[in-house]
Amino acid sequence: MKDVRHPVDAADRDPSLDIGIDHAEKGEASSSEQELGYGDPDYLKKVKIATRKVDIRVIPILGALYSISGIDRTNLANARVAGMDVDLGFNQGDRYSIALLVFFITYFIFEIPSNIILRKLPAHRYLSFLAFAWGICIMCAGFAQNWIPIVIIRLLVGFFEAGFFPGCVYLISSWYERYQVHQRIAWFYAFNTVAGGFGNTLAYGLIQMEGVGGVRGWRWIFIIEGLITIVLAFLGYILIVPFPDQVSQSRKPFLSEDQVQLITDRLNRDRGDTTFDPITWSKIKFCLLKWEIWVFALLFMSCGVCIYAMAYFQQIIIKSFGYSVSETFLLSTPPAIASVPFAIFCSWLADKYHTRAPIVIVQAIVCLVGLLLVRYAQGTGPRYFGLFLGKMGCNAALSTVLAWQANNIRGQSTRAIASAMQVMFGAIGGIYASTVFMEKELPHYTSGIWAAVATQFYMILASIGMSLYYMKRNKQANRGERILEGLPEFRYTI
User: Fold this and answer.
1) Residue 313: how many CB atoms within 10 A of its CB?
2) Structure confidence by residue, pLDDT tens digits, 68-83
3) Contacts of 309 (CB under 8 A, 6+ apart)
């Protein structure tokens, strides 16, 4: 068949790919691969060793810091159940919903600016600073005397946490090939899920400090968890790694020059975008005009709605079953823990078969069924089981949606902007959940449940639509009618 190489369509052309694309567009293998080949045992052993080093240095510390950020972000629910509600007047009107809501305002606004700053400063300094700053804020919440300081603190925590999650996703996706990244994001997020589950148990333990030093138990939740964050921030300063193109300039490179080159060669062969290109207004405009980015952002928002709904209202729902405060905290942990193996299995399956959309659809259905059980099932057991399914579906879907977008974009600046924009819409999901789960509908939250169910229907329909679109584009590329994302060998992941 005649090879017709049409110019890249304007809709496909990313200005961030203008740098360092010649080698990739020629389809040339790296020197290492030309000499050794993918099937050479010695070469594969070197790849495995280098990848394991990256796994050990990238995932645990970022996962630990993000896990404590998740606890810090959602500990308001634990403090409320433990007595803050009455002490600070959060049981009046919609004050609790306001405190939840304001966090997402600053969280939304500062996502993209933070990712721009991340590439201008060493990653270990910037990300650890963010953690240190929100840790101080959380600790200060333990000394609030009325509800207004809590609202101000939540605004500040949103400001500092805004850049951390998209920064982590950007850093992780920069180190791995397209069909390695889902499992790494799943493991990274698993730290948060497990910590979030045990965070409820930790909160219960801290409540037992009631009266120590004349301080209420719910105040100790903020004080101790803030201190834990500060300690982890110092560890982050020591352990967080730079981007691949910055390793040779780092203080103590954790990879040899040969290992860095090995990983860079494989990344270039996989997607050809390891060269950093500065973020400019034209590139930001390109991302904002790329409609697929908005679809992925809304997919992430849909995940966020259910994740935040579970985080902020799960304890209240469980307590409404008739359990004591201590039983409520203890019963809040198992659903979170159970969601981890499901998420890891989904990520393994998705990477193994190079697919994303079918996995997202299954996860959305699991979450949807769980939500409906929580609202309409008869008896405590089935409703509690609904929390398990809801947690499993939404927690697993988060890493799948992140990986799906990461697989289908190229260019360092595009990756920075797109990942920040995607997580920005997670903040909208938090706002959505904070407002649709209304105090007056406690404990059934009928409007909130159906509003969350609607987001899962969107995930199903959007995944089907994106799959059909990507299948069409891939077929056009196979016929030589189109070049995808500026690289002839590139194909979209479905």
Assistant:
1) 21
2) 888 887 788 788 888 8
3) 433, 437, 448, 452
CA distances 384 to 195, 196, 201, 321, 332, Å, are: 20, 17, 17, 9, 10
Among residues 288, 297, 274, 262, the alpha carbon closest in space to that of 17 is found at 274
pTM score, whole prediction: 0.82
Number of Cα atoms under 13 Å in the Cβ half of residue 285: 5
Which stretches in the chain have pLDDT values below 70? Answer: 1-39, 248-251, 273-274
Q: 490, 470, 473: which is closest to 481 by C-alpha?
A: 473
Residue tagged 């706002």 (tokens): 431
Tokens of 261: 């080159």
Locate 194 and state its tokens: 């497990």
Residues pairing with 484 in the sheet: 487
Find tokens 């994303």 and name the residue.
Answer: 356
Pairwise CA distance, residues 459 & 301, whole Å: 10
Distance CA 436, CA 449 (A): 8
Cis check for the bond before 60: say yes or no (omega within 30 of 0): no
Distance CA 486, CA 23 (A): 12
Which one-letter amino acid corresponds to residue 350?
A
Dump pLDDT digits (tens) for 466-483. 999 999 999 999 999 999
Q: At what angle do helices 164-175 and 412-436 cross, to 10 degrees?
A: 140
Q: Is 487 helix (H, G, I), strand (E, B) or coil?
A: strand
Rounded to 10 degrees, the C-alpha dihedral 431/124/169/221 comes to: -40
Please tell me the distance from the alpha carbon of residue 26 to that of residue 4, in angstroms, as a whole number. 15
Helix (H) or strand (E) holding 43: helix 41-79
Q: What's the rounded Cα separation, in Å, for the pair 366 and 350? A: 16
Could you tell me which CATH number the domain at 15-478 has? 1.20.1250.20
Contact 207, 221 (CB under 8 A): yes
Q: Report the length, in residues, of the chain.
A: 494
| Rounded Cα distance, 380 and 321, in Å | 6
Distance (Å, whole) CA 55 – CA 183 = 11
Report phi then psi at 487, rounded to 5. -135, 115
Task: Give residue limits of the domains in the chain.
Answer: 15-478
Beta-bridge partner residues of 487: 484
Round to whole Å and give the CA distance between 402 and 326.
35
Query: Contact, 199 vs 70, CB < 8 A?
Result: yes
